[in-house]
Task: structure prediction
Amino acid sequence: MKEEIIIAGFGGQGVMSMGQLLAFAGMKQGKEVSWLPSYGPEQRGGTANVSVVISDSKVGSPIIDSPTTVILLNNPSFEKFEKKVVPGGNILTNGDLVNLPCKRNDISLFSIQATTIAEKLGNHRVAGMVILGAFIEKTGILSKESLVEALLHVLGKEKQHLIPVNIAALESGMEMVL
Amino acid sequence: MGKVLMKGNEVIGEAAILAGCHYFFGYPITPQSELVAYMAKRLPEVKGLFLQAESEVSAINMVYGASSAGVRVMTSSSSPGFSLKQEGISYLAAANLPAVIVNIARGGPGLGNIQPSQSDYFQVTKGGGHGDYYTPVLAPSTLQEIVDLTQEAFRIADQYRTPVILLGDGMLGQMMEPVEFLKTDNQIVIDKEWATTGTKGDGSPKTITSLDLNDVKLEERNCKLQEKYKLIRRNEIKVDTYLMEDAEMAIVAYGTVARICQSAIDRVRDEGMKIGLIRPISLWPYPTDVIASYCERLNKIVVVEMSAGQMVEDVRLSVEGKVPISFYGRTGGIIPTVEELVEQFQMHGNGVLR
Amino acid sequence: MKVVFERSKGLLNTETHYCPGCTHGIIHRLVAETLEEMDVLEQTIGVASVGCSVLSYQYFNCDMTQAAHGRAPAVATGIKRVLPKDRIVFTYQGDGDLASIGMGEIVHAAARGENITVIFVNNAIYGMTGGQMAPTSLLGQRTATSPEGRQPQTQGLPIRVSEMLATLDGASYIERVSTHDVAHVMKAKKAIRKAFLTQQEEKGFSMVEVLSTCPTNWGLNPEESLQWVKQEMVPYYPLGVYKDRQYKGEES
Ligand SMILES: Cc1ncc(C[n+]2csc(CCOP(=O)(O)OP(=O)(O)O)c2C)c(N)n1
Ligand code: SF4
Result:
């Protein structure tokens, strides 16, 4: 099994750390993983993206030409990456922020009102977790447990109080694609 | 300790500490600045020393000083800054001083850009500075390999008393992969009795210099250097191969490009093409004989680089006209995609492979 | 009366890449307006340095050359020395560029009394490379390479470049200004004009050190950044004229 994921959005939307969570969870689950950010001046204000490969076998190229899943958090990213997804692949968007029509009919599109859901849960910053929940439910590449373990690690000791709301977000996301 | 997820630049730093290097002199430059920042944070924790120099020229000379004083020491930069270190590297080589210099290369020439590139190959493998010298060059292609090769770099530096270069590029520096910090088997501890640490009253002052006004003496010095290079050529060649057992066409690539080639090779193998990869790990000394040993069976060699064609010259020297060689390169910081390489391999394999 | 927000003819009609709240943009405008008002845009050659302002050659509406990190004063020397005397040559350099790697070049350009104008943007940090310590970073200032705050014992003390260069007999006009409020921006413009006039009158080396913000790497918002310049930087880097020699060859 192999998932090649690109996550893209504005710098500051947590694109890099969403990718890091996936890579960390993959590692904890004993998979081979790689995480590669776009870097350089385009990060300043512009859009940023990260490529994550999660695989049962060794990762060759960490660069992804044809992602199996893209997670898109703004319209410019949608325009850039919609066309790159492999036929049969997934496009997950934050439907509160991406409102462009999808031109593909050979992929599965999940437009999730992640910000709305996150705000209902009381913390707009967990929107990313909602989408990651949908991602793991749809692809089955990672378990909820390993993602939670990744969260525990990334949040560190000081922010443990944020765990419950993150788990709630993850679960809401998982329900979205049932 | 188990596996941890880290950026390539940080892995170099931690691996250097694992290798017993507690001294680092650096200067910021993208895409290696994370290494400098990592050392700034980490070295004080192990009671080592981090110092930001006022320039790369100063940093390499601080390394020269620290190495003269007998410690394991490192500096790092990226292409434009690495050029500035060349003078110092020539002095280190001439004075037989061990040191590890990291180059996380980026697009050039000039200020170029900050994207990954392999266009410093000539500079690092052919001496680079003035005078007759070489520096061993190690080129990892995964982060786990960085852990090993950083330690090896320090081992080789101490064993032969030479500066050693660890060559990566922006992609390797910026990406994260799980790594485990395991010690390599060939650790050595050398008594650096040549170091200038004060005579402590032993009545025999030591000198470290690269000057010899007497021509005969300077030639002797050069001969000794060449003897050392002969030994390194004999002992320190590192190369990896992938699916070469039955290959009729070989791809030669190093560093990050080798990974992308590997993915492309997997794809064309699925179509039945007998194709494999030769991946030089030591770029100097170059695995000439290993490449030559495959010539009999090969119909074609394709060299892939993120440059306009630099390593391809060493492949030509290895093959001596026995196998046709093609080159495919991207410049300007562009990383070739798996898809474009698949196309290239199919095109070059066409007619020469069954 | 002039329309206040009209873009200076000294700047090209392109959007800059500077972060919100970064005063590089204001300093560009001051330089551009001055050159326009002096009517010398067509005989000016600027030298862009390596730092966030490296792309200034895309913004200034005059001939521009881009120099290696720290070497702008040497490049400017080459340009100035071979062209007819009426040409105006300036460098635009950050504190990492000018006061760290390029300290040799700036000192010798000043010592030679090189008839060029240097716009020295001091934001107490390396902006472009992501917030490392600069020679001008303040004591205690946290940066990527001084994570515990700059310590004098290990990382030395901040350099006051204007004061230092003013000790050189070759330097003719040196002033330090700031950008933290409108009044100071106006003063900065006067200083920049004075510096270019010094060059036009062939009086020798001129430099204006401009205290500037880097909200992105200081971790402050634009408003807090201006306050930081005023409250932290100005006390350590006092504003004022450090050298003003009226005639070529006259001792100050
Ligand atoms: C020889 C060399 N070394 C290092 C660099 C990397 N580098 C680019 S900009 C910069 C410093 C920028 O800081 P500063 O001059 O203070 O300008 P700012 O970005 O803050 O405006 C450095 C070190 C380089 N391009 N070339
Ligand atoms: S990083 Fe700092 S100096 Fe550079 S543009 Fe942004 S605010 Fe300005």
In short: The CA atoms of residues 30 and 56 of chain A lie 8 Å apart. The longest strand of chain A covers residues 2-10. Chain A touches chain C through three residues (CB under 8 Å).
